[in-house]
Design a protein that fits this description.
Elements lengths: L1 E8 L11 H14 L4 E3 L17 H11 L2 E11 L4 E9 L7 E4 L18 E2 L7 E4 L2 E5 L9 H8 L4 E3 L10 H15 L2 E4 L12 E4 L4 E5 L3 E8 H9 L6 H4 L17 H4 L4
Parallel strand pairs: 1-2, 2-3, 4-6, 8-9, 9-10
Antiparallel strand pairs: 1-13, 3-4, 4-5, 7-8, 10-11, 11-12
Helix pairs in contact: 1-2
């Protein structure tokens, strides 16, 4: 089964003009659809808003565009909790082409409060959520998480064990000295979960350094540090073959990743409480 994912790494409008990112989003959604993509993936908090109090909600417009152009849209926003306290969830949403209500993942890690205040872009009091949903689509099961949650392998592994085959992990801004390790972990999450991992980040200028990537368990299918747009062809049948297979003496001849590592051949849940004890 062939799947086409459009990855967008935009030069963004920063607050207080972040509402203009909706126009950018509309442009890229239309372009991705015209290029035959089944999904278009935006960065964390794109198209916004970036600050509390939230001045707009992009979800209704993105949902309409998903239906109009017949495409799944993975996008970022914040979900206000308490206006007086400036608290909000950081959210990755997915709009469906069939018009159903967009689904969402509210960031769970790390513990709050955290870094979304005091900088030039974000300004809200982050609250950590507690749920790890996965979402069905006609193309496969999707997991949504974000940014530095790539350093928390428990999250994508939990989603993969619940069936997620495509892990969208949109990121925020320039990774600075973390760039190399971040890139390594993105591919590692694909390898260890036999999943497709998709990411991109917001860019503030042409001189900024991005990290857009689509990784499969066996290869990095696309990556770019530059602002831009790409459509990546993915063989979902290969993902399912690797998941359904069993590791053997000859597996390394034909497989670039370990087969069946989500199955009972490798998984031993009866032991896990021993190395991660619970009170």
């Amino acid at each position: 089964m062939s799947l086409r994912i459009s990855v967008v790494q935009p030069i963004i409008h920063v607050p207080p003009h972040d509402y203009k990112n909706l126009e950018l989003a509309a442009h890229f959604i239309a372009r991705a659809s015209a290029d035959g993509a089944h999904f278009v993936a935006f960065p964390e908090t794109f198209p916004g808003p970036w600050r509390m109090p939230a001045q707009y909600d992009p979800s209704p417009q993105i949902a309409e565009l998903a239906v109009k152009h017949g495409i799944h849209v993975v996008f970022g926003t914040i979900e206000p909790i308490d206006l007086a306290k400036g608290t909000a969830y950081n959210v990755i949403s997915m709009a469906y082409p069939d018009g159903r209500t967009p689904v969402r993942y509210r960031r769970t890690h790390p513990n709050g409060p955290w870094i979304y205040t005091g900088g030039e872009a974000w300004e809200f009091q982050y609250v950590a959520a507690n749920e790890f949903p996965v979402f069905e689509t006609v193309h496969g099961t999707v997991g949504l998480l974000m940014c530095s949650e790539v350093f928390m392998p428990e999250i994508p592994r939990g989603m993969a064990l619940r069936g997620a085959e495509i892990l969208f992990m949109p990121a925020g801004v320039n990774k600075r000295r973390l760039w190399t390790t971040w890139r390594t972990l993105l591919w590692a999450r694909a390898i260890e979960n036999l999943a497709i991992v998709v990411t991109s980040q917001n860019m503030f200028s042409l001189d900024d350094r991005g990290l857009a990537m689509v990784a499969s368990p066996e290869d990095i299918l696309y990556e770019s540090p530059a602002p831009g747009y790409a459509v990546v062809e993915i063989d979902m049948g290969r993902i399912r073959t690797l998941r359904a297979g069993r590791d053997s003496l000859t597996s390394s001849i034909t497989c670039g990743a370990k087969e069946g590592i989500l199955s009972e051949q490798w998984q031993r849940p009866e032991l896990y409480d021993h190395f991660y004890p619970r009170k």
